[in-house]
Amino acid sequence: MSDSTLPTTAGALGRRRRLLVLAICCASAFVVVMDISIVNVALPAIRGDLRTSVSGLQWTVDAYTLVLAGFLVLAGSTADRVGRRRVFLVGLAAFGIGSLLCGLAPGIGWLIAARALQAAGGTMLNPVAMAIAADTFPEAGERARAIGVFGSVTGLSLALGPILGGALVDDLGWRSIFWINMPVVAAAIVCTALFVPESRAARPRRFDPVGQTLVVLLLAGVVYAIIESRDSGWTSPVILGLLAVAVLSAAGLLAYEPRRADPLLEPRLFRSVPFGSAIVMALLALCGFGAFLFVTTQYLQDVRGMSAFTAGLCLLPVGALVVVLSPFTGRMVGTRGPRPPLVIAGAALALGGGASLWLGPDTPLPAVLAIYLLFGVFLGTVNPPITNTAVSGMPRSMAGAASSLASAGRQTGTTLGVAISGTIVGSSLSQGGTAFTDAEHGVWWLVLGLGIGVLLLGLLSTGRWALSTADRAASLFEDVDSGSRTPARRVVRRGART
């Protein structure tokens, strides 16, 4: 998300047209993010219909979030280069075709492949929609409100996915959770072609094929090793080989990215403590929520014997609190900064994980719902301050890269949450009862620790020292704002020599 070179994308649009563009962006983001969570409530039905294993269920979720995490930054920079509306339309078409193929999948392998295609389209929607929305509202106050609405919609869709999914699974079968995307995508394609103006970045970032390849190898190696470790064992040659690929990829990124003028992962951003903390907090927070969704929907259906719709209704407190708290959180960030909501979010996640340790097959339902309220408080307060912390002190030219990396951190966290929690509960899914709730304890201890991590990083990243590092990091991008492609540190070194 960079400054636009096409002024008609902002100033020439009337207020109604700008609001319509925002609505189109929000609708696309809604279905993309909802498909992260909506599939969780359908997992028991998918397992029974397609007769798949636990790892198959994990890949049904993680094939989607893994592709999102691996290609979000690439999609955003490509849209800046070739045109945001053009990439947005391609993304809508790919997401729609992927959704159709998911609904027609005859086996788990076909479903996983179609989910990956869905996600490939999704990578061209969320970051690009954010850039379009920001470009459509040129005035700073309006832009902040528009981004706040966009963020609230994405948080709401993540929470409402299980509720809508439960209703669809019970009435129409699990395939309907994918077909429901089709009318939304079709309407979005038509409205985008008619009402969304084209825009590009003033100085689009260059494609970084080496960095992109290393990121995909790193994420895929870690996730594949975690998911398949239960069947293969951590000491198997395949798992050890995957972990070696991940380690080498991480080392390659550290060695290669600082040498590029336009790296995929801009190393200078990480000199800002708020930015680095925001990426880690995004990963920890969504890892906790991904684990919560994966085990909770199966606990409610397989252990307590609920229907998919009833299980979705049990998650209504989460969605309701997101609706109530998201706007309040946005205002709190604007008036008091990101620290209070980050502390609240971290504490709520930790308390939710700790309280969940007492869940059993016969725990009274009011007590179960009270625990879920804690996860609702967490999700309703965590996203706006993370985004704010990521872009704190950054020049506008780097705000898009910072927010895209924060989004990638969220998707990576969700992917790891599903992979780790599925590995922990393992074969207990088929045993049910106390076997499953006992195995869940490992997941809830993990969630408790993740919540404490978010709380501590929220305190660390919002202090005076942390904010001063953000100012120093921002000064490194003066060359970007002036249009130069040469990193500031190299300019300084040349000046020193002369």
Can you give a write-up of this model?
The chain has helices at 15-37, 43-50, 54-82, 84-104, 108-123, 126-136, 140-172, 176-179, 181-195, 209-232, 237-256, 273-303, 308-314, 316-336, 339-356, 365-391, 396-425, 428-431, 433-460, 464-475, 478-481, 488-497. The longest helix has 33 residues, at 140-172. Helix 10 (209-232) runs parallel beside helix 17 (396-425), helix 12 (273-303) runs parallel beside helix 17 and helix 16 packs antiparallel against helix 17. The protein is built from 22 helices and no strands. Residues 1-11 and 483-498 have low confidence and may be disordered. It has 3 domains: 1-206, Growth Hormone, Chain: A, CATH 1.20.1250.20; 209-259; 266-498, Growth Hormone, Chain: A, CATH 1.20.1250. With 498 residues, the chain is mostly helical.
